[in-house]
Each structure stands twice: as C-alpha cells, then as structure tokens.
Amino acid sequence: MHSFVASRSAAPGAISFIEQFWGTDLSSYDPDGPLPDIEPVVDSVAPTRGVARRQQDPHEIVAGLREQATANSWSIHDLVINQTGHGGFVGTASRIADEITSFVQERAADGFILVSPITPGGLDEFVDLVVPKLQDRGVYRDTYPGSTLRENLGLPDHRPARSWSEHRAAARADGQSTGNSSVKVGANA
What we know:
By secondary structure, the chain is an all-alpha fold. It has eight helices and no strands.
C-alpha cells in the first residue's frame, strides 16, 4: 500500500474541492493533470461552494494554489491531498495506527477527523485495516460496557420523556387532569 491517504483521494472529491475556489464546474478536468488555466468565476460562487473562502479574493486564492502546484509539480489530486492533509497521517495502515497510537498514549489527542475529500467512498478500508491495528494496540475499544450510548457515555438513566409519561400515567390513575382536555371549536361547539 503506497499511501493510505493518497490512494483514497477520489477524482470527484478532488475536483469538487477545487471547484469551490474556481466557482464553476470543473468536472471535465483530469484530477491527475494540472490545475485549470481558466480564471475563477467570481459572480457565480454559490454559498454551498465555500462561503468562508469567498471572504478572500478568489483570484488571489487561485494564484496561491497555482504557485504551490507549480513549485511542487502537483496535479489537482496532489494539491487536494496537501491542502486537506495538514496535520494528517499518510502511509500504510500500520504506520497510521502507530502515529494515532502515539498521539493517544501521549494524551495529545482525544479524537481524529477523517477528511471527506480524502475518504469520499466511505470508511470501509480505514475500519477494516487501521481500526483492528488500533484495537491490537489497546487504543480503540472492541467492546463497550453498556448497551446504549447513554450508558457508554456514563450518563444517568434519567430520561425526561419517560418521567413525563410516568407522571401523566400516575395522574390519570388518580383521576387528575393532565392538562390535555379536549376543546371543541366551531359553530356547533
């Protein structure tokens, strides 16, 4: 396995990632080719294409991306991996498990984020290849003590809805009103 991250970055994810900067459909571009030579379409950048990034001049952003890609001989695919992989782990399943284990044992992290442009096809391979190695190293559970999320998070078994239902049932049994009497409205009421 040459690189866990690089091999998981799919073409649609890479193209979709750069479309937010160009503000236009770039599906005709090859993810393993150079960045588009067209200028960004500023007026058509929809909010779903990255509102936060619209605060900067798209021409400046694209110029910076082109500069990085040219200096490093990166394809669109390479650029996406480098732009989204900051602070990430790249390598075989064993190497990634080793790095995650190190962070956990040093109490330097309490969770990790898997970036969608890198894993657009799902997490099956991460779960199948990395998670078992993490479990073998004792940093990822393979069983849980409780049968519910509430129990596993150590939360009390108090559920307001259950308490309300029990209160309502007890009030009905005592013949008390629960506040839900029927009211008829209309000409024949």
